């Protein structure tokens, strides 16, 4: 067979582009069984314990570099693997993780010097951490957790969401490639090819795992908090956004749609329901429509309820049936969801909005879809009261568009969330276009809040009596 130069070039191009798309055959840190993964991390941790801060920081630098370099590959793979989210927004999320997750600079040493000598309080590694990660931000959570946990000097075993196992394995491989390139030990971060409840149980109960970190819904947080081990729980949210009559309504409309549609509403911090003062409601809804929102009729709301909510089988005989989200539509494009009720639109529609009562299911349920129910309220106080109830005591995230400082204060006190964003899209709460570091593990239930390296440490005190105080 004769192949000319052009054909040869094309073949090489095809092979290379195929290689780009394929995940590596052998992935570093990815094991067939949880026993193997735990064993490997234990071996790596024995070496990693002697790595100083500079060496750990060099590893983190390399993780940041590779995350930037492979952001697009991971964004595409995450959408392909989970069938959720938006590639462009996921690219932005990976860059955010690479740029704004704190490294070793987050660790602080406290020195107490006085008449009776010198006492140091240092942030020491906790040991091996078992981390459970969600399907909604799979690789971002693996990389964000890895940076913080390795900065703290720990090893990590991940049990990722089974519906995100390919992208999570890719992220574990990336972290290991970075560790090796920076001269670190093999498998300081590990996972299993096929995560299940059994592998999760084994990880949780293994004696070498000293700390547990859950990023996910209420089930997994409850399970880890009942383990008897030190556990950090980052659970579900249902963030309400309130809009009052002092707000810049045009800006509020755009900000809310931008936040609510970011990665198709997958982020746990994204606006999930809106309470607006009656006097500015029409202007807000009009502004939202000008920013890519499709307004449903009351009849269409009923039709959509049947699509995105399903009856969960009763747990016990006699239990009332409960409406839960239809996972087929979580993180899907607005146009895909609208097509289910016979509305055919293009990409210009990025959000579905509707006017509802407070008790309506879209208000009360964390849908994680680009659907925003809007409730009209007579007063700010009424809006605030409803928002607090809709947040369900998750202590997660709330939003406000207002220029009235007294109202900002009152709402912040009443809702008591870990994150409270004012006059910006929800993603400002994780450092996107705002001050402050980022995290993909927001620990409301256990109080660590916007987790970072200092959340994954144990304090140790070193005391020297009557010496080394040099004044
Ligand atoms: P999920 O709760 O379905 O799954 C999370 C992880 O827990 C997965 O790995 C899953 O396999 C595992 N899991 C679930 N129940 C378990 C149990 N009983 N025992 C052991 N493992 C269990 O979550 P998801 O659908 O991937 O993510 C969405 C949820 O996570 C939403 O509620 C969202 O608000 C929340 N979330 C919270 C944060 C945060 O930082 N607070 C971040 C991302 C997602």
Written account of the structure:
The protein is built from 16 helices and 20 strands. The strands form 5 sheets. The protein has a 7-stranded parallel sheet, sandwiched between helices. Strands 1-6-5-4-7-8 form a 6-stranded parallel sheet, with helices on both faces. A 3-stranded antiparallel sheet has the order 2-3-20, with no helix packed on it. The longest helix has 17 residues, at 5-21. Strand 14 (351-355), helix 14 and strand 15 form a beta-alpha-beta unit. Helix 3 (53-69) crosses helix 7, helix 4 crosses helix 5 and helix 15 (380-390) runs parallel beside helix 16. The protein has helices spanning 5-21, 34-48, 53-69, 71-82, 87-100, 138-151, 165-181, 197-205, 218-225, 249-261, 278-290, 298-308, 334-339, 361-364, 380-390, 405-415; strands at 30-31, 110-114, 117-125, 128-133, 155-160, 189-192, 209-215, 230-234, 240-243, 273-277, 293-295, 309-312, 322-325, 351-355, 371-377, 397-401, 419-422, 442-443, 449-450, 457-465. The protein has 2 domains: 5-235 and 449-462, 3-Layer(aba) Sandwich (Aldehyde Dehydrogenase, Chain A, domain 1), CATH 3.40.605.10; 240-436, 3-Layer(aba) Sandwich (Aldehyde Dehydrogenase, Chain A, domain 2), CATH 3.40.309. By secondary structure, it is of the alpha/beta class. It binds nicotinamide-adenine-dinucleotide.
Give structural attributes.
binds nicotinamide-adenine-dinucleotide; alpha/beta; Aldehyde Dehydrogenase, Chain A, domain 1; 21% strand; 20 strands; Aldehyde Dehydrogenase, Chain A, domain 2; 471 residues
Write the layout of secondary structure elements.
Blueprint: H1 5-21, E1 30-31, H2 34-48, H3 53-69, H4 71-82, H5 87-100, E2 110-114, E3 117-125, E4 128-133, H6 138-151, E5 155-160, H7 165-181, E6 189-192, H8 197-205, E7 209-215, H9 218-225, E8 230-234, E9 240-243, H10 249-261, E10 273-277, H11 278-290, E11 293-295, H12 298-308, E12 309-312, E13 322-325, H13 334-339, E14 351-355, H14 361-364, E15 371-377, H15 380-390, E16 397-401, H16 405-415, E17 419-422, E18 442-443, E19 449-450, E20 457-465
Parallel strand pairs: 1-6, 4-5, 4-7, 5-6, 7-8, 9-10, 9-16, 10-15, 11-14, 14-15, 16-17
Antiparallel strand pairs: 2-3, 3-20, 12-13, 18-19
Helix pairs in contact: 3-5, 3-6, 3-7, 4-5, 4-7, 5-6, 6-7, 10-11, 15-16
Bound molecules: nicotinamide-adenine-dinucleotide.
